[in-house]
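pinging the channel bc i need a second pair of eyes. not urgent but kinda urgent?? the chain im working w is below, pasted from the shared doc
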Amino acid sequence: MMRVIIYTTPTCRSCGVAKQFLAERGVGFTEYDISKDQKKMVELVSRTGRASVPIIEIDGDFIVGFDKHRLAKKLGLL
């Protein structure tokens, strides 16, 4: 089973679209709101060099932004 984590903020429209995309396909995920979780934000920046959202982590690989095709491919949905 894949481990999916999505890093978000409440004002990020693409974050909502990404979460809906995952939910509609039955993909379970853990969400971290980096605007409220400073530790996760620091961890994310140290691992990716970025603090932009959404960032979706799938088994240790990162997708920056909501790239529907790349996300579906990584999840084995294509």
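so The longest helix spans residues 13-24. and The longest strand covers residues 4-8. — does that match what u expected or am i reading it wrong
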